Amino acid sequence: MFNQRVKIKQLLMGNDAASAVGSEVVVMGWVRTFRNNQFIALNDGSTNNNVQVVAGLGEFDDAILKRITTGASLKVKGVVVESQGKGQTVEVKATSIEILGDSDAEKYPLQPKKHSLEFLREKAHLRFRTNTFGSVFRIRHSLAFAVHQFFNERGFLYLHTPIITSSDAEGAGEMFRVTTLPLEGAPKNDAGEIDFTQDFFGKSTNLTVSGQLEGELGAMAFSDIYTFGPTFRAENSNTTRHLAEFWMIEPEVAFNDLEDNMNLAEDFIKHLIAYVMQHNADDLQFLDGRLAEEEKQLPTEKRSGLGLIEKLKFVSENGFERITYTEAIDILLNSNHYKKKKFQYDVKWGIDLQSEHERFLVEQHFKKPVIVTNYPAAIKAFYMRMNDGCEPGKETVAAMDILAPGIGEIVGGSQREERLERLEARMNAMHIPLEEMSYYLDTRRFGSVPHAGFGLGFERMVQFVTGMTNIRDVIAFARTPNNCEY
RNA sequence: UCCUAAGUAGCUCAGCUGGUUAGAGCAUCUGACUGUUAAUCAGAGGGUCCCUGGUUCGAGUCCAGGCUUGGGAGCCA
C-alpha cells in the first residue's frame, strides 16, 4: 500500500499518537517554500498550516535538494521532533525524501509571494494551493455538509430535482436551452419555427433556474423537503455576486406559513455560521486577518468596522430585524439620506427595492441582517400567496427576502398560494399557460395545504462567511458571461 | 447590457508636457552563507509596452476602433 501518510492537520493538532514527539511518520504534500536549503514548508491541503520538514545539512544529495522547488510534491519519512526554531512547536526531521512530482520553478505560476485574486482567477486550477483559496474551499465544504446536517436533523428529505426541465413558466430568469438539434438546418414546423417535437425530449427543454416547483410537489407528500443542486441563469450579469451556474438550497415545507418560513431561514443561516465557526476556526482566523489587511487599504468611511469573525459571531447571536415592505419604504422616506436626495433611485410604495436601498437598511439603519416581508404583488412571482385584507391598489404577497450586509439579498422566499382559484386567477393575469402547469396545479387540486419555502444562494452564503467580495472566488470554476474555462 | 477605471518583465507596479539603450521590488537562475519563517548577501538573465489602424521627423505616451480585466448599476440567489 502506498498511502501510509499522516495528514498534516492531524500531525499538527498534536492529540494523536502519530503526532507525538519521537514517533516515525510519513507525510506527503506540496512544497510551499524551501528555505535555507534546509527547511521545507509542506502542505497537503488538510489545513493552511504547513509542516516544517527539516532536511539536515549534508544528509541529502544535492541532486534531490535541487528538485525541492515550490509546487513539487514530496513523500517524506521522518521523525517528529520538537522544533528549535520559532513559528512551530513540532517539525519532521527527514530521514528520506522522495520527489513524487517535479515542478519547474521557472514555469510554475505560483510564486512564494502574494498574488492578486484577479491573477489567481486565471489560474483557477492551481489557486487551491494558496492559503486564501485553501481556506475558502474548506469552508465551502463545511457549509455544504452543515446544510445537509441541518435539514437531516430536522427530518427533511433531500429531494433531487431535475437539472433539465421543460418548465419555462417560472420566470426566474433567462434560460440555457438544451437541445440535440443541429444549429444549422434545424427542422422547422409549418409556422417556420424550430420544431422541437423532433428534439431529444420531443419538446423544448432548458437547464433549470430553480427546483422550487418540483420541490413543492415533494413537500405535498413528504411534508418537509429541501433541494441542493446547481441552477443556471443565462442572464448577461457581470457583477461580483452573479454566476451563470450556481448552487442553490431550496427547502419547501408543508403546513408552514410565512413566519414559520422566516424562523426556519434564520435558524438555518445561524446553524451554518455556527458550524463553520466551530469546525473551521483556523481558516476563519486566516481570512479574518486577510480581510483586516485589505481593510487597511480602504478609506475609513468604506471600512466595515467589524472583523469577519466578529461579524459572524454577531449575526449568529442576534435576531434578524423583521420589517414589512411598507415599513421599509417608510424608513427610507424618513431617512436623512433620502431627504438629502442621496438615493439615485426614487423611493415610493410599489417600487422594487434597489441595491442602494437594501444596503441603506442593512448597513446604515439596522446594521444587521434584515428580513423584509409582504412585498407588492405586482413585483413578485405568481406562486406567492396573496395577503388578505389589503388596501385596494396596495395588494401584497406573503414574500420575504433576507438581506445581508455586504452582499444584499441572500434568501428569497414566500408562503405559496395554496388556494386553487386565487392561483389560477393570478396565473391568468400574468399570462402563464395553465395547461402546461397542470401538474403543478394538481397539488392545489388534491389535498392542498398552506406551505412555504425559500431559496438560499449557496455561493452568496460562502461569500458572507468567508468575506470574499467576488463570487467568482468562492466557486471552484466560475461560469460567467464570456468565461467557461476548464 | 449601461457607466467607469485599467492593460508595461513570471507577479505587483513606476514611466512627467511625445524625444537617445523602457525602470524598480518580488520571483527565477548562478554563487556565498546555513535554525530559517516572504531567510539574508552578491551577481545574471528576462519586454509583441493588449491588438489594429492613424497623427507625427519621432508614439509606452496623442487620436479612432476593437479585445480583455477590475469596480459600480440593472436582472437576481
Give a topology summary.
Elements: H1 8-13, E1 24-35, E2 39-43, E3 51-54, H2 62-66, E4 73-82, E5 90-101, H3 117-122, H4 131-153, E6 157-158, E7 164-165, E8 177-178, E9 205-207, H5 212-222, E10 224-232, E11 245-254, H6 258-279, H7 281-297, H8 308-317, E12 321-324, H9 325-333, H10 336-339, H11 355-366, E13 370-373, E14 399-404, E15 408-415, H12 420-429, H13 438-445, E16 451-457, H14 458-466
Parallel strand pairs: 3-5, 6-10, 12-13
Antiparallel strand pairs: 1-2, 1-4, 2-3, 4-5, 7-9, 8-9, 10-11, 11-16, 13-14, 14-15, 15-16
The structure holds one RNA strand of 77 nucleotides.
General description of the model:
The protein is α+β, with helices and mostly antiparallel strands. It contains 14 helices and 16 strands. The strands form three sheets. It has an eight-stranded mixed beta sheet with strand order 6-10-11-16-15-14-13-12, sandwiched between helices. Strand 1 and strand 2 form a beta hairpin. The model has no long low-confidence stretch (mean pLDDT 92). It binds one RNA strand of 77 nucleotides through residues 33, 35-39, 41, 50, 52, 54, 57, 70, 83-88, 105-109, 111-116, 118-119, 121-122, 172-174, 210, 231, 233, 235-243, 246-248, 344, 354-356, 407-412, 455-461, 470, 482.
